[in-house]
Write a structure and sequence with these properties.
186 residues
Length: 186
């Protein structure tokens, strides 16, 4: 399976910005990511967080994969690391009393899960449609822990004073995406 031409084709097309290829990768390998989460005992919203982190890492590193056919192994290793990171962080957390549920928290059951899945899919699609520079900057800004402006400046070659305005423009593009607009109309 190391030379699976379908995987190689999807990775190469996704590198070129093909949203359909990116969606096909996510659809094809989401069960693999969820399976790894399950083996580590990570489920529910924690598994959603891990999966989101894995897909974000893939967006960041898709261009640096030396062997596109090795994508499944890369996803397994990355998911394992994300699960371990989550489990270590959970050990350091102190439980607190949950606040009263708000309007969004009242969504529960299958309908609530479907809405959450649709929102996440729309956000992933919108993020994948952003220019590479926006994806890189937003990924660095919203990483855990977030990169400093100095680190972002050095990595992207952007003056520190331009990061805030660029971030604003990137977020505006994200908000105006067709994928998120379609979700609001639904």
């Amino acid at each position: 399976m190391r030379d699976d031409p379908v995987v190689v084709d999807l990775v190469l097309r996704a590198r070129e910005g093909d949203a359909a290829a990116w969606n096909a990768i996510v659809e094809r390998y989401a069960p693999l990511v969820w399976g790894v989460c399950g083996r580590y005992g990570v489920s529910g919203s924690d598994a959603d967080d891990v999966a989101g982190g894995v897909w974000l890492r893939l967006v960041e590193r898709l261009g640096t994969l030396h062997e596109p056919a090795a994508l499944p192994g890369w996803l397994v290793r990355t998911t394992q690391r994300q699960c371990l990171q989550l489990l270590r962080a959970r050990k350091r957390q102190v439980p607190v009393v949950a606040p009263e549920p708000g309007p969004r928290e009242e969504e529960h059951g299958v309908d609530g899960e479907i809405l959450v899945a649709e929102r996440r899919h729309a956000l992933r699609t919108a993020f994948a449609e952003l220019p590479a520079r926006c994806r890189e900057m937003l990924s660095m800004l919203f990483a855990e822990p977030p990169a400093s402006y100095a680190e972002i400046s050095a990595a992207l070659g952007v003056p520190v004073g331009a990061i805030g305005p660029n971030r604003g423009r990137c977020l505006d593009r994200l908000r105006r995406s067709r994928a998120l607009a379609a979700l609001e109309l639904a």
